[in-house]
Design brief:
Elements: H1 3-11, H2 16-36, H3 45-64
């Protein structure tokens, strides 16, 4: 069993508040990373917009996909 299939099986048992806690944890880890490496904030705004757009498109593709696995 691969780590990804194990994680997917475990994620199916999680409730909405577990995912909310995960998002808060990721957000705080990003803030900590930026605190240690302030040069990350020096990028132009369009880099952040591009990263957001690509990740959002990937998420939407998976959400509306009919297949069980989208990559």
């Amino acid at each position: 069993m691969s780590i990804l299939s194990w994680a997917e099986k475990r994620a199916k048992k999680m409730k909405w508040y577990h995912f909310s806690a995960l998002k808060i944890g990721v957000a705080s880890a990003v803030l900590l990373l930026v605190k240690f490496f302030p040069v990350l904030l020096g990028l132009d705004w369009y880099w952040y917009a591009g990263i957001f757009a690509v990740s959002y498109i990937i998420m939407l593709f998976g959400f509306f996909s009919n297949s069980k696995s989208y990559g």
